[in-house]
Amino acid sequence: AQSVTQPDIHITVSEGASLELRCNYSYGATPYLFWYVQSPGQGLQLLLKYFSGDTLVQGIKGFEAEFKRSQSSFNLRKPSVHWSDAAEYFCAVAEGDSSYKLIFGSGTRLLVRP
Amino acid sequence: DTAVSQTPKYLVTQMGNDKSIKCEQNLGHDTMYWYKQDSKKFLKIMFSYNNKELIINETVPNRFSPKSPDKAHLNLHINSLELGDSAVYFCASSYNTGELFFGEGSRLTVL
After folding, report:
1. DSSP label at residue A7
2. To bridge A34 with a disulfide, which of A92, A102, B93, B111 should be the other Cys (CB 3.0-4.6 Å)?
3. How far is B110 from chain A (nearest CA, A)?
4. Record: contact A43-B99, CB cut-off 8 A
5. Within a 10 A sphere around the Cβ of B42, how many other Cβ atoms?
6. Mind listing the pLDDT tens digit for each residue in A47-90?
7. Quick one: closest CA in A to B103, which residue?
């Protein structure tokens, strides 16, 4: 069965510093991969997605992610973090041939130091 | 206009009671979902409907019964509430591409 691992429960970065959030997935075929962000008391919002093609995908709010098949990873990056980026970030993989069912990782909480 | 709206936002009730959460989307999506987020923020799919047809039922207890009167609405009814049902329940919708649009969540507290 598919699974998603986000090894970092919390990450703290200073405002203006770069950010990388790790995500590893377990899936036999080419996966559909997603990053979502959840602000406190809110639902989740899609940051970016990978289905096929260019392995570096750009998303909203200045985020990007790179799909690396050899490492089964889909890490999220941002070159310069803003205080408003503080939130919970979830990586997800669509299960099987259907994109109906997303399997989410356990999330990484991003804290931003002023 | 809110794309995916769910009501109520907060629900506090006693064990053994029955409660419902309603969800509506105005995005014209064909697929709607219920997800449960526990106290550790872990998100798990419960149900998915496509054009009013149940397509995913993730071994959820029979006390949980979703109903989709039309493709813009997906309600969740819970019978005989238990302490372990306390969580945030998220409704979402999509065009079947995995790009889910989430509601703001309904926080259920069972006392």
Report:
1. -
2. A92
3. 19
4. no
5. 14
6. 999 988 889 999 999 999 999 999 999 999 999 999 999 999 99
7. A43
Start-to-end CA span in chain B (Å): 34
Q: Please list every residue in chain B whose beta carbon sits closer than 8 Å to the beta carbon of residue A34.
A: 98-99
Q: Which of B21, B10, B27 is nearest to A46 (CA)?
A: B27
The CA distance from B48 to B68, in Å, is: 10
Asked if A107 reaches chain B (Cβ–Cβ under 8 Å), the answer is: yes
What burial class does residue A58 get, using C-beta atoms within 10 Å of its C-beta: 0-12 exposed, 13-18 middle, 19+ buried?
exposed
Calculate the dihedral angle through the C-alpha atoms of A97, A74, B30, A37, rounding to the nearest 10 degrees: 160
Measured distance CA(B104)–CA(B22) in Å, rounded: 12
Percent of the residues in chain B that have a pLDDT greater than 70, as a whole number: 95
What pLDDT does residue B97 have? 67
Q: What is the dihedral of CA A57, A4, B50, B25, to 10 degrees?
A: -70
Size of interface A-B (CB pairs under 8 A): 60
Chain A contact set for B55 (CB, 8 A) = 100
Residue A10 pairs in a beta bridge with A109
A29 by Cβ neighbours in 10 Å (0-12 / 13-18 / 19+) ranks as exposed
Considering only the C-alpha atoms of chain B, give the largest distance between any 2 of them, rounded to a whole number of Å: 38
B72 interfacial to chain A (CB closer than 8 Å): no
pLDDT at res. A29: 76
Nearest-by-CA chain B residue for A96 = B98
DSSP three-state, residue B73: strand
Chain A residue whose CA is closest to B97: A99
